[in-house]
Amino acid sequence: MSFGLKIDLRDGATPELTRLINAATPGSEPFRSACEAIGAAVANQWRENFESLPSNRMGWPTTNFYKRASRSTSYQVESDGATVSCNLLGIRQRFFGGVINAVNAKNLAIPADAESYGKRPAEFGGALRLVVFGRGPGVPMALVATRAVGTVIEPKRGKGKGFKPVASLLGAKVLFWLKKSVTQEADPTVLPTRDAMAERAGSGLDAWWKAVRKG
Q1: CA separation for the pair 151, 141 (Å, rounded)
Q2: How much is the average pLDDT of 22-47?
Q3: Three-class SS of residue 206?
């Protein structure tokens, strides 16, 4: 889902430029040229910010999420400003946070280890086993590598209900925790602050105006 932010042509403009902008005809070539300048400036600022973010908090091998966000950033000139956007799936969720519900499956598969980070359970083929750590509703569930250790409890398969113990196997490791939903905290550092964007927009506009006067 694309995530966009409208940048007003007057953001960060000096009083002199503000007067010129107010006197300009919206949609005219000079006006569009000014919009182009601020759109390009703030889009580059987004890319720089994405590139500066850490790959992940766990120190696991990177999936290059923010590098892909940088490559997915663009801007569009409009009649009264420019809209900068990033069309990478998940970037809006990172910025605003909120609840993530399982949609196409019964549960979300949350990576629990560097081995499973950035991957889906299907990529492990038959190497995973569904286990339930306890009895009753709300107990932790996970997908565990078949090289498991200790005695775990898993749902019975086929007819009947209930649970059965699973024999110990050497080297147990949980690769995914299974949950119906999770709540992700908002991360405002995904984008520059509004003040920083207004300042960058002003710098872009100022550079445009200097080029116009030289020309």
Answers
A1: 14
A2: 82
A3: helix
- 161, two tokens: 């209900």
User: How deeply is 109 buried, as exposed, middle or buried, from its count of CB atoms within 10 A (0-12, 13-18, 19+)?
Assistant: buried
Structure tokens at 184: 């992700």
Write the single-letter amino acid at 15.
P
What is the full DSSP assignment across 136-184? Answer: STT--EEEEESS--S-EEEEPPSSS-SEEEE---SS--EEEEEESEEEE
The domain ranges of the chain are 3-97+185-214, 99-183
Write phi, then psi, for 209 (nearest 5 degrees). Answer: -65, -40
Between vectors from CA 117 to CA 112 and to CA 120, what angle results, nearest 5°?
95
Contacts 24+ apart (CB under 8 A), 45-52: 45/192, 45/196, 45/197, 45/200, 46/70, 46/73, 46/84, 46/86, 46/191, 46/192, 47/73, 49/190, 49/191, 49/192, 50/86, 50/190
The helix/strand/coil state of 207 is helix
Render pLDDT for 113-142 as a digit per residue (tens, 0 to 9): 999 999 999 998 878 888 887 777 778 889
